[in-house]
Every structure is written in C-alpha cells, then in structure tokens.
Amino acid sequence: MMLARNVARHAFRNPSIRRAALSVGALRGHALVLVFHRITPEAHPRQALIPSVPERLLRQQIEALLDAGEIVSLEDLIIVAPHSSRPRFALTFDDDWFSHYESALPVLQDLNVTATFFLSGRSLQRLGPLWFETLDGMIADRGIEAVAQWLAVDSGDPEQVARLCENEPSLQQRIEEVSDREVQRLGSAEIAALAGAGMSVGFHTLQHPLLSRLSDSALDEALVIGRSELEVAAGSPIRLFAYPHGKPDPRAVTRLPAAGFTAACTGRPLPVRPGQNRYLLGRWEPGPIDIDRFITSVATRLNGWSRSA
C-alpha cells in the first residue's frame, strides 16, 4: 500500500495525470476540506509550532484550487455532491488569530470565495492566549532545548513537546502562569466583519481542551460555554464545530447533534466521502508548501491515497 501511494504521488506530478486524478476523485463523490491557522504578511522567519502561511502563498494556493475545481461553503460541501468531474473544496481557518481578519479576509474577498472560521471567542471573555500559543512563542524566542528543560520533559522536538503538554494539564497550567505575551485576537468587531462578508463562523470551544480527558459533565460544558457570546458577535446561530487539537471524542460525536451542531471537523487529513458521518469530517492542513507540491497533494488526498501529514 505504501509503495502504491508513493507511485501515485510521483505520477501526480505530471499535470495530465494530476488533472485526471482530480476528475476521478470528483466523480467518486470525494471532496476536500482544507484548514489554515496563522496567516502572515511574509514567510515566518523563525521555527514555530503553529503552521504559518504567508499571505501571498495563501492566495496562490486558493487560486490553484479554483483552477482545479470549485470552492464552496462547508455547509454546501457536506450536501450530496453533484455528479461532476470538477472537485469541490471548502476552506476553514482555526483559532482566533487577528490575521484571519487582517490578512486572510482580504484575499478571500478579492478571489470571491467563502470560508468557515472556527473560533473560540476568547477576547469576548477577556481571556488571554491559549497555552499552545504561548508555547509557540517560547520555542521561537528561547529555542526548543531551553523550553524542554524548563518544562522538565525529555524531548528536543517541538511537536513532541506539544503532544506531552496536550496530555498533561499541569504543564499547560505552568505555561499559562508565566505567559506575558500579548496576542492580538479577533474581537467582536472583527468577528462581525467576517460574518458580514459572508463567511461562516463555527465553534472551536472556549478553552480548547483535549476532549477525551474531560468528564462527561465537563465535556457537555465545553460544547456550549462561550458559544452564545460568539453567536451574538457573529449575528447568527453557530451550527458547525471543530474538535480541539483536531481530535474527536466518541462521546462528543454523539452529543453534538443534541447541542444543535449539524457537522464537525476533525484534523484527520482525509477526503469527505458520500454517506460518511457528518460529525467526523476530515480536514487537511497544507501549511507553507509550494504550489506544485500543493496541487499534487490535493490530488492524492482527494482520492484518499495519502494519510501522512
């Protein structure tokens, strides 16, 4: 299977084969949801934990999607796909980065495409940065070795350190206690501007916890706390959900419909297929990869032939 995937990825570098693969994926009813986090004016100069995509590259990636197929809203994408050889894509953005409004929105408007922004609404509660945002800045400022030593964890890999913290609330608390980093976040005016521009607003939970570590009662609270304030800022009910850290919990999957959500996105880089559970939608994060690699990856992932990041 791995050999077949490698052969497919190599073959998809040929434009003709790539176009054919995109058509095959579309005719099979497959669609692809993409997710972005931080958008920057230029290439991020330092190693960072949170993926950053330069504004110019975001534009190029979206233009490549428009050339390959059609960009639709997430709500439309989960409806039964029309029988077409042109694939459908949906764009999503996670967390409350101010660059969603400052950098991403102008690109989306200029290209006349829509997107869904999965927000926590922390500024509406006067809350500071989340632990992983602070950790990202600490690693960039001090280096991973110094941060790992300070946390007393045996790892020199940023992603591994983040995973250790993700599963250990005491480490998260320690990071949050020393946080003095000012992070400009989306406020009510910016959230209203996103909605006013025709973008959808989804919920990403207020505290961004790993849902599998929560008790049943805490899980129920996580699905609703902060949502009503976000709905007021967006000016409409919120029906879309994105799992914190991209990791679904079986209990949440069963609870989301009763909480009024109509669909939920994971972080699994898989295509959306006809008949699948709407509360387990896959999403792929391309990150700052060049356009040739980007469209090759789109073709492979649309067909479900690549699971690696």
Give a brief rundown of this model:
The protein has 309 residues and is an alpha/beta fold. Helices cover 43% and strands 11% of the residues.
Walkthrough of the structure:
- By secondary structure, this protein is of the alpha/beta class.
- The protein folds into 2 domains: 2-124 and 185-302, Glycoside hydrolase/deacetylase (TIM Barrel, Alpha-Beta Barrel), CATH 3.20.20; 129-182.
- The protein has 14 helices and 9 strands.
- It has helices at 2-11, 15-27, 55-68, 74-77, 99-110, 131-142, 144-151, 158-166, 169-177, 188-196, 216-222, 227-234, 250-255, 291-302, and strands at 31-36, 38-40, 52-54, 70-71, 88-94, 116-119, 200-203, 240-242, 263-265.
- Strands 1, 4, 5, 6 and 7 form a 5-stranded parallel β-sheet that branches.
- α4 links the parallel β4 and β5.
- The longest helix has 14 residues, at 55-68.
- The radius of gyration is 19 Å and the shape is globular.
- It starts with a helix and ends in a 7-residue tail after the last helix.
- The mean pLDDT is 90.
The end-to-end span amounts to 17 Å
Q: How many beta-strand elements?
A: 9
Structural class, by secondary structure, is alpha/beta
Which percent bin holds the helix content? 40-55%
Examine the coordinates and then state which fold CATH places here, giving the name of the CATH topology of the largest domain.
TIM Barrel
Figure out the total of helices.
14
Apparent shape? globular
* CATH homologous superfamily grouping of the largest domain: Glycoside hydrolase/deacetylase
